[in-house]
Amino acid sequence: MSRMQVILFSVVLTLGMPILLAAQQPPAAAEVSPIKVGVLHSLTGTMAISERSLVDAITMAVDEINAKGGVLGRPLQAVIEDGASDWPTFARQAEKLIVEDGVASLFGCWTSASRQAVLPVLEKHDHLLWYPVQYEGNERSRNIIYTGATPNQQIIPAVAWCREEFGSKMFLVGSDYVFPRQANEIIKLQLADAGTAPVGEVYRPLGETNFADVIAEVQRVQPDVILNTINGSSNRAFFSALRDAGIGPREIPVLSFSIAEDELRDIGVTLTAGHYCSWSYFQSVDTPANRRFVRAFKTRYGPERVTDDPIEAAYVQVHLFAKAAERAKSIEIDDVRRAVRGLVFTAPEGLVRIDPRNLHTWKVARIGKIRHDGQFKIVWSSKDPLRPRPFLPQAFLAEARLHGHAMFTEISHLIELGIDGVSAEQQFAALRAMADVRGYQGEVRTNFQAAVTSVQATNRKAFEQSWRDFEQRWRVLAQWQDAMGDEQSATFDRLEKAKTAFAANATKMFHALYDEGDFIEVEP
């Protein structure tokens, strides 16, 4: 090879080396796809006053998690939709987030009406909603993680405290939808156990601005305390009407279940200072975790902003989702749902735990008095977290009394009517069948009460046996239907309807109060 050829070869080899080296380099890592989470709250409409700040809390939590590496090495991405304070819109947007956006979980809803509108969508797709607000209970779904308070963590201790502090004459006022009406049913049951009843109960539509007639009724009955379940912007009009009538906290205190620090920014402390609220969290809770949370929230959104119970719950549940996904090493719905059971987290409000049975949250109950700076002086606390009890024994007992009384009334009326057009021997046999049903329904009611008031396997078995005995007598009575006249048939139909309702209540009770292994179905 000549000297010139050697030089040319060396040049070609040198120039080609970058190409060869580049070909030998490993390919660049593919960009990690984000984990989408759906955020569904009212950004417009009457509920926006309460719900907008929850979106702020969720996005702050998402950014905090991403700053620490995300979930399973992937960043979270919040996909935000507006429920527009309209329940059908909530359902449509939930469908869109699940089907079109492919979110891993939904965080959202405030009112029980919006939650119940979304629930069928969740069940249809077997998806998961993290719900941040206190509610009326009487619900348990495998498709919802409930991080707000149940009645035994908010309503019941607050009513007991009000009776002790102010007296038993209570006036109930609320917005006209699910939560206020069912919350007040719980309050009425609680008052009935104490031998009293509300002195007034009124409801107004969400967004209502005229409360003149409500205030007139308050002035007429002069309650010891007003229990308020008004939601949204109507609270401003309600407290304005109280002030205009010269009713302040010294005259008649108000304890509210659905307004907190964030709503007070809109309503104003000139209208509300000295009144009370019941929540699990207040911004004034003195824990290291809360001081960090409040500082971070104000740094991000401005020193004038405040935190409150639903804001804190909305923030915490995103961290719970991240912790459950890391624990499960998966974002699949079943895996996250399994991993979240029993999960413990140091929240700003204190230690919280997801109950493994009912997917509700162990929380402290607190009552705060509104200060002139828009914050709360905590005047009462349960100190320790309370176990969530979404289903209250009092409610099951009240419904059982209602349907049990109807059964007794109708079977007694059927006995009075007897069976016409048959032999004396047949009349005696029919009356004996009726008497047997009346006798055994009494035993069923007694055993039901025992099973509710003392959750024990022996009480469950006693009820099951008494129901089987009752059903056996019922089948004998049903054989006489063809011999019944019109009035007897109508009475039997009402009796059967009451029996079916009693059975449905019993089934719901066993699902709610007993362990999964003890669940039974009561056939009507």
Structure explained in plain terms:
With 524 residues, the chain is α/β, with parallel strands linked by helices. 52% of the residues lie in helices and 13% in strands. The protein contains 17 helices and 15 strands. Helix 8 links the parallel strand 8 and strand 9 (254-256). The protein is globular, with a radius of gyration of 30 Å. Residues 1-24 and 516-524 have low confidence and may be disordered.
- Mean pLDDT over the full residue set: 91
Strand order, largest beta sheet: 7-6-8-9-10-14-15
Could you tell me the strand content as a percent range? Answer: 5-15%
Q: Which stretches are low in confidence, meaning pLDDT under 50 for 5 or more residues running?
A: 1-24, 516-524
Major sheet details: 7 strands, mixed
The helix count comes to 17
General form: globular
Distance between the first and last residues' Cα: 103 Å
Broad structural category: alpha/beta
Counted beta strands: 15
Question: What Rg, in angstroms, do the CA atoms define?
Answer: 30 Å
